[in-house]
Amino acid sequence: MKLEELKTPAFLIDLPRLKANVQMMKDRARNQSVSLRPHVKTHKTAEIARMQTAEEFPGITVSTLAEARFYQESGFEDITYAFPITVNKLDEAAELTTKVKIFNILLDQPQTFSAVEAYGREHGITFNVFLKVDCGYHRAGVDPSKRESVQLARNLADSDFIQFKGILTHAGHSYHCHNPIEVIEIAEQERDVMVQFARSLREDGVDCQTLSIGSTPTAVHAPGWQGIDEIRPGNYVFFDKFQADIGSCQTKDVAARVLTTVVAHYPDHNQILIDAGALALSKDLGADHLDNEIAYGGVSGHPNLKLFSISQEHGLITSNDPLDFQKFPVGSLLQVFPNHSCLTAALFPEYHVVENNRVIDRWVPMRGW
Ligand SMILES: Cc1ncc(COP(=O)(O)O)c(C=O)c1O
Predict the structure, then answer these.
(1) 213 alpha carbon to ligand 1 midpoint, in Å?
(2) Could you give all domains of the chain from N- to C-terminal order, each with its CATH number?
């Protein structure tokens, strides 16, 4: 099928770029002797997860229990649900614990520990649990410098209804960086915080099996992972404009695009209307700490075009110079690099797989919670 035959807006995946990105992270993990447990929330498809896990890396990371169910039904046998568990999800987590060969959950609150333990005792079930650690992002996780955090790990390790799996963190503050040099500092902090916390747990007699870290920027730039067992990047399969802007990749590595049609010309305002708005791109502002001029994505092949305004279905493009409208006829196609490919992908019910400018496959992601 030709791109011109697709209805727009449409989500495109450049297959050779996707394959190269998947391979790049496998090679990094292999060369540094860590396990790769990719976060599959970026795409939520069985097809890409199979590519990421083929060969020696069977485990995956998910962000919802619906994803966990989907991947269990698709044959995945080692799944970490990397969002802190809540009491109202314990029934579902218990069911997955019985169905999936290895199903890990995580928590960072003493109250949640008590609830998980009580649930396990009442239902005769042993949950695999990671302690979530805050390595500097300050979104979730225990403070590793606090005595209470060691105590919570000890409680997890001592429980008869919990298998304490280890400690897990996500260095999301790597997204605040301006360049790879700053990302390397965060990557070293992510590693050092975890290695030191594991050391203090072990000195306290708490067996800490697995040290799990990972974000795409730190996974791309970390100089080494000594003492770390697994990494969990996700976005790297597609990358996006944000990652290119902070130096995780080059624009040519971005495997995700939104195909959109030029709807109208407004020469009086130096504007072009396209049919990709917030429901095709998300309203993620991208790396606005680097450039505060608003852009809801980059237009492929046209760095001078600015996608400066979006509403639900409308997108407006302008330029600092007078637009050459003849170059972008009404009805012609443009491709937009999303600011944040995970959010953009989540807006589409199907992905079109592209090679040599032709659509060669169609992948259907899972949806829902
Ligand atoms: C807990 C956790 N692990 C891993 C990741 C993957 O990081 P990235 O999206 O930078 O690849 C995320 C992403 O938000 C996350 O929340």
Answers:
(1) 9
(2) 3-8+249-363 (2.40.37.20), 32-238 (3.20.20.10)
